Structure formats: C-alpha cells, structure tokens
Amino acid sequence: MIQPARRAHHQVTFAVLALAVATYALLQSLVTPVLPTIMESLHTNQTTVTWVLTAYLLSASIFTPIMGRIGDAVGKKKMLLVALGALAVGSALAAIATGITLMIIARVIQGVGGGILPLAFGIIRDEFPLPKVSSAIGVLAALTAVGAGLGLVLAGPIVDLLDYHWLFWVPLIMVLLATAAAVVFIPESAIRTPSRISTTPALLLSAWLVCLLLGLSEGPDWGWTSGKVLGLLAGAVVIGGAWVVVEARSTAPLIDMTMMRLPAVWTTNLVALLIGVGMYALMAFLPQFVQTPTSAGYGFGATITESGLILLPLSITMFAVGIASGPLAARYGSKAVVVTGSAVTIISFALIAFAHHDKWEVYIATAVMGIGLGLAFSAMASLIVEAVPAHQTGVASGMNANIRTIGGSIGAALMATIVTSGAGSDGIPKESGYTNGFAMLAGATVLALIAALAIPAARRGHPATAQDLPHAELGLVPGGTLLGADPE
User: Fold this and answer.
1) CA atoms within 13 A on the CB side of 434
2) Which of 98, 216, 255, 370 has the fewest Cβ atoms within 10 angstroms?
3) Is 0.70 surpassed by the pTM of this model?
4) What is the mean pLDDT of residues 166-177?
C-alpha cells in the first residue's frame, strides 16, 4: 500500500495556530487603553478616534464567518495565509500611520484576520487525532480571551517603554513568524466543500451586521431614541430577516440555516452571545473603574499599566483552565463544563458588583472570572465543532465567534448607558452606575447558565458528528487517527 506523505506532527501544527490566534487576540484590545494617546498623536477628536475600535469590530464581524466558509470550500491553509497576510498588512499600515484616516483603513484590513479563528478550528479538526481535537480547540478558544486580556495588560508597558506604534510592530513580528511557520508546517486539508459561494448572502450578512454593530456602538453617544440609531437597528432587523430568507432558499448558502437550527448549535450560540455580553463589557469598563480617582469615593486612581494588571489574574486562570478543559470535557462532557463555567462566572460578576472597595477583592473576582470564562469558552468551541459535519467546521465556528462579538457589543452598549446615566457635572460616573452595570452583567450570565442547561447532552469524549462522515471522508484510519498524524 502506498503510504501518504508524512505531515507535520499535530503538536507542531498546534504551536503555529496558537501563535496566529494569540496575535489576532492581542490586536483586539491592545489599542483600547491608549486611545487618548492615539487621539493626541494623530490630532483627532474623541468621536473620530473611537472608529479605531469600531472599524476593526465591524470588519472582523463581517469577515470571520465569510473567511471560514471560503476556507471550507477552497482550502483552510490557503485562507489562513490570506488572513495572516491581511493582519500583517494592516499592522504595518497602522504602525506607520500619521493620520487617523490611514489608521482606520489599517484597522479595517486587520479585521480580515478574524478568519484565523474558524480556520484554525477547521485545521485542528482535519489534522488532529480524534481524541486530541476537543482539548486543542479548547485551548485555542481560551487563547482568544486570554490574548484580549493580555492586550490590556501589555498596552501600558509597551507605550511607556517605547511608543504606541509598537502596539502594531510587536504583533506584526508575531504575524510574520506565524505566516512563515504556517507555510512550512501546516498541511492543506483534503476535506473541502466544493460549491459556489453566493455573493448576495455575503452582502446581506455584511449589511445587517454593520447596521446592528454600528447602532449598538454609537447608541450611548447618539442617543438610543435618535433617528440614526433607530434607523440602524430597524435596518438590521429588516436586512437580517431578508438574509435568513435568502440563505434558507439558496442552493449554495453562505451560512446553512439548517445547521444553525441544530439544537446543539443554537443553544451554544445563545450561551456565546450572553457570555460575550459579560466578558467584553467587563474588559472595557473595569479598567475605567480602577482608573477613577479616589476623590470620587471609589476607584483606585490606577495608571494604564496598573489597570491592566488588575486583569492579569483573569488571563492567567483562564489559560490554565483552558488547558484543563479538554480532559474535563472528555470525562464529564462539554455541556457540563459550559454549565459549570457559566455558574462560576455568575459568582465573579456578583463579587465585582458588590465587593470592589479594595484591590484584593477585584483581584479575586477577576481570578474567579478567568476560571468561569476559561471553562465556558473552551467547551463552547468544542460543542460547535462536535455538533456540525467536518465540512462546516469553519463557517460554524466563525458564526459562533461572531455571535460572541455581537454579545460584546450589546454588553458594552448597555454598560455604557447604565454607567454614564448618573454621571456628575465633572463627567465622572457615580459608583452606583458601575455597581448596577456589573450586576446587569451578572444577570446576563444567569441567562447564559439557563441556556447552557438547554444544550443537548452528547456522548462523553466523543464528537457528536464523528459518525456523520465515513472514515475515508474524515481522513481517518482504523483506530480513530487522522492520516499522517502520529497517535499518542
């Protein structure tokens, strides 16, 4: 029998994917704490500089599922290199930008890198021994949140020691290393979904996401009853409905609505939405809380660097738990891990809402939150991959990541409204605003727990769809090992 060409060991492939995912995750949050510095350096105003975040968010939301779908069709490695290339070009442009216009364009290009996550999940499913898939996906999923947390931690020291341009030079170096390693070590999967990719669903998806996320992002500033915000949200509903109809009738849908209606998929996506509400809103507003001068009667007057360190326990515990999530899911089931993570996250939000008068209380709350989010994020990614056929891994993972981002936008918008509603004449919010806001996030996580309990249980340690495709299509040989991978 002719033996297949030897492929890189799956652990090497994982290391390359981890570097790519970590780089993308860092760029999600590195610029958040230093927007005032960027505003001053690029001679712009508060309203305009927020587009450095908004443009990236909109671009990533559009391209994450689209890149995953194209990867399923034409090859995941090819599209991973495209995503890494966009991240590199965007980082280079942002690093050399001397005006706000080029900076915003650079951030739009960086958003194409959002496809890295679903493509990485798809590559893992295609290339890893079946028993290793859940653990590897869990760690990468945890890395997305860990990287976002570390971005807040590292932003201050990078700017203090160098300058804000290095917020993009450092990721650029990481991207170039990841790209070179991907070319050499990541194999191209034989699992494809050869079909025409319709442009109409892609345009409709892009349009309703832009309307929704722009309306949510600008609602606190423009006013929730303003014509622009109401028009954007109404447009999101109308265009979103049209998108669903077109996708359901399409012979080559961008997002398979039948797949999205699978009980394991829609319930997990609902958990992702609600968990996203809490996590991203916390990362946006906890640094503001601790930076509040003590003269306000709360807060710690922390610097940018100190406020980032407040989130360091979250990143540490999240990564540690993310590594352990695979074995836990194999033993107890991914659903049980998501339920446990959601329950722990409720405790952490309650702590931070009502016990935030000393720094040690906040450190404990963020450490507990890392445990909860690490469990939930890691197992949710595994549940999605387990629930869909191999050829839909990329697009399903992309939509899950997208829904999490939408949840983050909803959470940030609601938090901004609650926190600023009682601000004094000096513009500093009252402590009660933060307390009510963090309590609201705890409430969202309670709903996430309820949704997690509704997730259908799968056989422990076995992807629900491992039997969906014959061994030849999955690339498996007897014993459950992917062709070319070394069993362990």
Assistant:
1) 25
2) 98
3) yes
4) 92
